[in-house]
């Protein structure tokens, strides 16, 4: 059977279906559809899919259904039927209305200047006629909406042909800047194309000030430079002109207490946390773009404190009686200014005081801003700090000070150890205090022993003496247990730049004599040998008495005192020495020689001291053994040795030799020199003394004695602690390269064995610590003998760059030598990234390029390669939202405060130095949210049946995009998604555009239309309110079907269920007389009119009269229209009642039977009669207004009236109503009660009953209120996780929402 798709052309997204039926033909039949598009010659068999549903409805029929027609579905559809007998085919053409296609247009790539002329053409290349073409304009201001354009305001629109529209600007103005859209519609739909007209607009700066009052110092202030108009990019900067005629304005940057912040592209804030005098002046904000440069200035007024020009007395110190001058000059500060001087002496115990002319000081004030202080002749009392103070109306005192330096020698407070002598092991102390004298001071103690040959030397804490520095001007000496060696003169020295002072005190100690043991030697002397012995008192107070006794070898002899004689010579070379000499030994001289010593201490103790030696006489010379001591000496110690010839014939030759520690050096004879003093007190004694030991003195000292009998000698080793000495070494003068080899040898040229030698290394980084090296990590350390150690590196690595130290230690101490190993190291960049996740627009992103290795100086820079394959990478600098900072030599920080689409791409960090270059790259991935161009339905409200459309255009955002519309009406609580239906057509002309069109606007279409767009970055929306003028709708009302009697009560309620506010409601009345005209009613003449709400008016007549009979009309009007509704009030004129009214009660006295009959007929209790009421025949919508009036037309007074309510739920009982929960109940008269609901809710649906009762009984009347309640969708909770942008399936169900 032939089929078609209909006679009319279809539109995109329409639905269509057709049935192919085989009326004749043998079974079985094979049925299928095929399709040939307009663009192809191929015939394709169709199956269900791609929006096409094919259904086999029976053995002889097959249907084809398309829910949403798309452009690729246009063509020829064939139904093919075949059986064993053959094949037949029937075709039908599917045609659709072709949407217009606009040839893209633009205003050009360059911006226009003001007053230039510009033209653009909107040309429709495709699309069915007739075409409607119009223009809209969206200003560049975000707060303004797009609107339709007509010729005017400098814009001319012409239509030279049905498919072309011309937009012409004779002289463009700033208000013309924005987006111009050309819309074209036909029966197929609506399309548009937009172009942005870019105009160079000069910046406009919002005026700013710092305030009307002056600021005080340290106040905080700020100014905001806000650009209200002007094209981007915008350059904003500040300049400053100090409040000084001789200074010029200069550009400001953050610094010197000023912080400049660029809050946005059009805003710069200047803040001063703590205002200073130098900040006073004119601040200018300058804004510049391609159109022009503008500026605005504001003066910052500051109460300026006095500012004192710095002054000094001189860099050099003054001498006594010099003259000096200081000038205190106020360079800045408001007059009047008070200036005065104060002086603080250089003494901690004295306070500062104000100065006036006097005491050698003269103060003069040559001007209001200057004060001069002069001292003709400087005295010590003038030494101290001179302060100049100044104060003005700012009420803050400023000052400047200078110290007057006078050269003052140190003055030491005299000290003593006491008047009495101390005993051994007593404790003693003394403090040396410098009472006067310039700092810095050097204070030290010296000591000179009690012996004539003792030299003074500096003291340190040692040998039972404790020296303590007390502050800068005192030093103490303390001896806990006195020893004889500590007796002597103690001197305290104090020195400064002026010179030095000294004070001494003698420490007197009662010391018993102590005789140094002596002997004539172990060997026997020969006759005629010369022998001597020295009795040396090493300790003991003067005066000393020394004498000798002799006891011969004969047993019978007693000891006796010796005097010079008999070949014996006794000499007293010093007060503490007595020497006995025998020039030519004789046998009688053999025996025991005793030396006795006494002093006052021995007398107090009642004892004497002595030492004895036996003189054995033989022939050969003999040297008395000597040593320098058992312990090693330190450098600068003093040492003495005596070579005494105890036996031997004269003449004697005595000399000394020295053999150093160096095996390559030979022994040599010594003479006085090189710090060595050799003396010959007698023919048989030679003394060697070294005042200050040096390393070269270490070795073997030998005393040789020769006479005619032969040669003898005696040696002793002088041991001195010698520090190691390391020979300098280096790794070379030039910088080495990686993988080079290097060697260094650490050799100790001097120093006592055993020696410990080792190497340490400290890397090149600040955080590296020094550590000991061993053979490891490419480093070989080799010990070469006892005094050398080498380090060898075969292949240098960057980690081996740094400081190498060789340490050598022995018993004397530790020394070291350092050498730096410099290596050319390539830069190494630490890998960086922007993160694994994509960024969203306006997120902040940053990356740090850190060069962990590599020689300085380093050059670090960034490049950027955008996502566009046609663009090349380029070097980056701070700008365009990218900030590059260099916090230190090895770091570069790249940050983007607000990520934009243009920032997406590859960022590379490059680092180079003398060794080479390196780079590292990271990709910045950005999710670009859709951006919807604002749209509107126009500024004015639409009327019913008008045509309207809106285009949702996504100007930015990653594909794929999902675009859909939602709608929230004025009566619904939640929005609902829209599809093409119910007079609304939604088309998708491109991937980034959706058009919503309404051919004929209805009241139900009023509400908020929202366009949604989503992609992987997220979802955005843009909405516009469709405002429709809705005329009032009056709920029908009546006075009832029955006629009223005179004096009955009657009422009517005029309720507006729909219609825009504000509403005007009034009543008119047309009497039931053809000759009378209708007139407006007001309260009066027995009629009460009450406006119970904005959508409700009630008319009530308490007692109906004949004149009230007629037509009552309720009239309601708003901006949309005027509507009215009428009801006729019919009144019975009762003759019986009139007769009763005219009846005279005086007749009751004559006719009692008639009176009883009257009572029976007329004085009867009457039940209430309620006039039927209803809420109307149609269902109401949520938030509609509704009312009902319960009028008791008959019934005895008093009457009781009330309302009850029974909801739609079976299990809920009915209950009495009161004014509450959105319900208002009013009682305008004794026989009328009105119920009104301003905004209907689901809970108000149910049966409303009016109940009236009096003494006769109860009556009631009810009506059902029906409300359209949309279903409530219930979404069951789920614990499934869904990925953003993916498809999800959830279960939901509809519930009756009440």
TrEMBL record:
Residues 1-95, 100-198, 203-301, 306-399, 410-508, 513-616, 621-719, 724-822, 827-925, 930-1027, 1032-1130, 1168-1266 form the Ig-like domain. GO terms for cellular component: axon; plasma membrane. InterPro entries: Ig-like_dom (IPR007110), Ig-like_dom_sf (IPR036179), Ig-like_fold (IPR013783), Ig_sub (IPR003599), Ig_sub2 (IPR003598). It is found in: Membrane. It comes from the Eukaryota. PANTHER family: BASIGIN RELATED, ZWEI IG DOMAIN PROTEIN ZIG-3. This is Ig-like domain-containing protein. It comes from Polypedilum vanderplanki (Sleeping chironomid midge).
């Amino acid at each position: 059977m032939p089929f078609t798709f209909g006679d009319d052309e279809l539109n995109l997204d329409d639905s269509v279906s057709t049935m192919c039926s085989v009326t004749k033909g043998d079974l079985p039949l094979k049925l299928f559809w095929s399709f040939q598009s307009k663009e192809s010659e191929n015939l394709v068999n169709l199956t269900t899919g791609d929006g096409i549903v094919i259904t086999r409805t029976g053995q002889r029929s097959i249907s084809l259904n398309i829910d949403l027609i798309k452009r690729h579905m246009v063509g020829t559809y064939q139904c093919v039927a075949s059986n064993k007998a053959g094949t037949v085919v029937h075709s039908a053409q599917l045609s659709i209305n072709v949407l217009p296609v606009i040839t893209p247009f633009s205003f050009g790539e360059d911006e226009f200047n003001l007053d230039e002329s510009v033209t653009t053409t909107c040309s429709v290349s495709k699309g069915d006629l007739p075409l409607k073409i119009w223009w809209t304009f969206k200003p560049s201001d975000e707060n303004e909406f797009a609107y339709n354009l007509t010729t005017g305001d400098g814009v001319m629109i012409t239509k030279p042909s049905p498919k072309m529209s011309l937009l012409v600007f004779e002289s463009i103005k700033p208000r013309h800047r924005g987006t111009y859209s050309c819309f074209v519609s036909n029966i197929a739909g609506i399309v548009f194309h937009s172009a942005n007209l870019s105009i160079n607009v000069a910046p406009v700066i919002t005026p700013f000030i710092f305030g009307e009052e002056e600021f005080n110092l340290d106040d905080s202030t700020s100014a905001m430079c806000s650009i209200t108009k002007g094209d981007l990019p915008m350059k904003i900067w500040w300049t400053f002109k100090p409040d000084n005629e001789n200074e010029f304005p200069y550009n400001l940057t953050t610094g010197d207490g000023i912080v400049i912040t660029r809050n946005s592209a059009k805003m710069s804030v200047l803040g001063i946390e703590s205002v200073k005098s130098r900040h006073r002046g004119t601040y200018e904000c300058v804004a510049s773009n391609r159109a022009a440069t503008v500026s605005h200035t504001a003066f910052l007024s500051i109460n300026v404190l006095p500012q004192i020009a710095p002054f000094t007395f001189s860099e050099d110190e003054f001498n006594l009686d010099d003259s000096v001058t200081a000038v205190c000059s106020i360079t800045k500060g408001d007059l009047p200014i008070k200036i005065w001087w104060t002086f603080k002496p250089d003494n901690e115990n004295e306070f500062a005081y104000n100065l006036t002319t006097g005491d050698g000081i003269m103060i003069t004030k040559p001007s209001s801003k200057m004060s001069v202080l002069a001292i003709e002749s400087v005295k010590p009392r003038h030494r101290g700090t001179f302060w100049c103070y100044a104060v003005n109306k700012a009420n803050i005192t400023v000052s400047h000070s200078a110290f007057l330096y006078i050269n003052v020698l140190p003055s030491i407070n005299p000290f003593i150890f006491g008047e009495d002598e101390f005993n051994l092991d007593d404790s003693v102390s003394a403090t040396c205090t410098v009472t006067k004298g310039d700092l810095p001071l050097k204070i030290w103690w010296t000591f000179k022993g009690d012996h004539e040959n003792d030299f003074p030397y500096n003291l340190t804490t040692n040998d039972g003496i404790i020296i303590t520095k007390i502050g800068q001007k005192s030093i103490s000496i303390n001896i806990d247990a006195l020893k004889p060696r500590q007796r002597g003169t103690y001197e305290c020295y104090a020195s400064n730049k002026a010179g030095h002072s000294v004070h001494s005190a003698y420490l007197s100690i009662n010391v018993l004599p102590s005789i140094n043991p002596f002997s004539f030697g172990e060997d026997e002397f020969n006759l005629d040998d010369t022998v001597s012995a020295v009795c040396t008192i090493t300790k003991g107070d003067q005066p000393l008495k020394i004498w000798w006794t002799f006891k011969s070898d004969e047993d019978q002899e007693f000891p006796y005192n010796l005097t010079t004689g008999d070949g014996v010579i006794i000499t007293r070379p010093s007060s503490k020495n007595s020497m006995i000499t025998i020039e030519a030994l004789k046998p009688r001289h053999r025996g025991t020689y005793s030396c006795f010593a006494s002093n006052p201490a021995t007398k107090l103790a009642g004892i004497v001291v002595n030492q004895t030696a036996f003189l054995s006489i033989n022939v050969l010379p003999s040297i008395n053994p000597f040593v320098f001591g058992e312990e090693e000496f330190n450098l600068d110690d003093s040492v003495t040795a005596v070579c005494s010839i105890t036996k031997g014939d004269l003449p004697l030759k005595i000399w000394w030799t020295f053999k150093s520690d160096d095996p390559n050096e030979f022994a040599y004879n010594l003479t006085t020199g090189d710090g060595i003093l050799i003396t010959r007190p007698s023919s048989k004694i030679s003394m060697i003394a070294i005042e200050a030991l040096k390393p070269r003195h270490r070795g073997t000292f030998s005393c040789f004695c020769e006479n005619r009998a032969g040669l003898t000698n005696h040696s002793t080793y002088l041991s001195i602690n010698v520090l190691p000495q390391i020979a300098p070494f280096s790794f070379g003068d030039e910088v080495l390269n990686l993988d080079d080899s290097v060697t260094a040898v650490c050799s100790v040229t001097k120093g006592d064995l055993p020696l410990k030698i080792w190497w340490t290394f400290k890397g090149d980084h600040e955080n590296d610590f020094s550590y000991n090296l061993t053979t490891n990590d490419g480093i070989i350390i080799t010990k070469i003998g006892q005094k050398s150690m080498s380090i060898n590196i075969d292949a240098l690595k960057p980690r081996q760059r740094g400081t190498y130290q060789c340490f050598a230690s022995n018993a004397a101490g530790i020394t070291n030598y350092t050498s730096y190993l410099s290596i050319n190291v390539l830069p190494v960049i630490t890998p960086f990234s922007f993160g694994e996740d994509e960024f969203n627009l306006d997120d902040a992103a940053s990356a740090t390029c850190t060069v962990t290795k590599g020689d300085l100086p380093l050059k670090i820079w960034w490049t950027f390669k955008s996502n566009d394959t046609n663009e090349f990478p380029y070097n980056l600098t701070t700008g365009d939202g990218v900030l590059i900072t260099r916090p230190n030599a090895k770091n570069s920080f790249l940050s983007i405060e607000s990520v934009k689409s243009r920032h997406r791409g590859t960022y590379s960090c490059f680092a180079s130095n003398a060794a080479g270059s390196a780079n590292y790259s990271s990709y910045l991935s950005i999710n670009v949210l859709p951006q919807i161009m604002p749209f509107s339905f126009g500024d004015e409200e639409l009327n019913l049946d008008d045509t309207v459309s809106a285009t949702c255009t996504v100007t930015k955002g990653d594909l794929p995009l999902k675009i859909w519309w939602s709608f929230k009406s004025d009566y619904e609580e939640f929005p609902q998604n829209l599809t093409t239906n119910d007079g609304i057509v939604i088309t998708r002309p491109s991937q980034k555009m959706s058009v919503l069109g309404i051919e004929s606007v209805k009241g139900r279409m009023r509400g908020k239309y929202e366009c949604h767009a989503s992609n992987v970055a997220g979802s955005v929306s843009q909405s516009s309110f469709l405002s429709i003028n809705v005329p009032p709708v009056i709920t029908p009302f009546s006075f009832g079907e029955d006629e009223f009697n005179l004096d009955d009560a009657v009422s009517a309620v005029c309720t507006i269920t729909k219609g825009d506010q504000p509403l005007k409601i009034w009543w008119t009345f047309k009497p039931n007389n053809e000759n009378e005209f209708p007139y407006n009613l007001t309260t009066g003449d027995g009629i009460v009119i009450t406006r119970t709400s904005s959508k409700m008016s009630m008319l009530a007549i308490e007692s109906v009269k004949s004149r009230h009979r007629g037509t009552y009309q309720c009239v309601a009007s708003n901006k949309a229209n005027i509507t009215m509704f009428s009801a006729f009030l019919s009144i019975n004129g009762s003759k019986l009642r009139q007769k009763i009214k005219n009846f005279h009660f005086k007749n009751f006295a004559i006719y009692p039977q008639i009176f009883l009959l009257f009572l029976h007929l007329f004085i009867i209790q009457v039940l209430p009669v309620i006039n039927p009421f209803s809420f109307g025949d149609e269902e109401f919508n949520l938030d509609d207004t509704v009312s009902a009036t319960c009028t008791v037309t008959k019934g005895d007074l008093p009457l009781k009236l009330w309302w009850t309510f029974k909801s739609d739920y079976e299990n809920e009982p009915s209950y009495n109503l009161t004014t509450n929960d959105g319900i208002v109940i009013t009682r305008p008269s004794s026989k009328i009660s009105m119920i009104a609901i301003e905004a209907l809710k689901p809970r108000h649906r149910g049966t409303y009953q009016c109940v009236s009762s009096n003494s006769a009984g109860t009556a009631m009347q009810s009506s059902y209120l029906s409300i359209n309640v949309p279903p409530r969708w219930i979404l069951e909770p789920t614990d499934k996780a869904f990925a953003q942008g993916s498809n999800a399936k959830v279960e939901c169900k509809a519930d009756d929402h009440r």
